[in-house]
Design a protein that fits this description.
Length: 153
């Protein structure tokens, strides 16, 4: 692991906190869609969104603990999450199911890219443990992209 104060360590912590913010924001958005989906595909999408939300949430503690193991603070509030996430809010409860799937597909795709940045930052910082575990997080996100993409075909 990089020494405290090292620029590569700062970049890693920033990347991890960004990924954490994206996961938390995406969790809320996915649950929003789980609660509000309607139409002929209701049951399938309702269950898919719930499964995906649970998987997203399951990663958050690991990400935060990687930050803390780098002897840095992690996100502390809704405002901190909002300031660090790339996931855009969706407050509409009237979206069509296809629009929900499209947004989640896009957001999860962006999350894959964010996680690749975490991987690069971990390798730059010499943090082999983070570099290894981020592969699992990326695999989860890529699987969500795959499932969502298949629902559009």
């Amino acid at each position: 692991m990089a020494p405290k104060g090292d620029n590569s360590n700062k970049a890693l912590v920033e990347a991890l906190n960004g990924a954490l913010a994206d996961h938390l924001a995406l969790y809320v958005k996915t649950k929003n869609f789980h609660w509000h989906v309607r139409g002929p595909r209701f049951r399938d999408l309702h269950l898919l969104f719930d499964e995906q939300a649970q998987q997203i949430l399951s990663v958050t503690d690991s990400i935060a603990e990687r930050v803390r193991k780098n002897d840095a603070p992690t996100l502390t509030s809704i405002g901190a999450i909002a300031g660090a996430t790339q996931v855009k809010d969706e407050d509409s409860t009237g979206l069509e199911a296809e629009a929900m799937v499209a947004q989640l597909l896009d957001d999860n795709g962006k999350l894959v890219e964010r996680l690749k940045q975490v991987k690069d930052a971990a390798e730059e910082a010499g943090d082999n443990a983070t570099s290894g575990v981020v592969d699992e997080w990326t695999d989860f996100a890529e699987e969500r992209v795959w499932f969502l993409r298949q629902t559009t075909r």
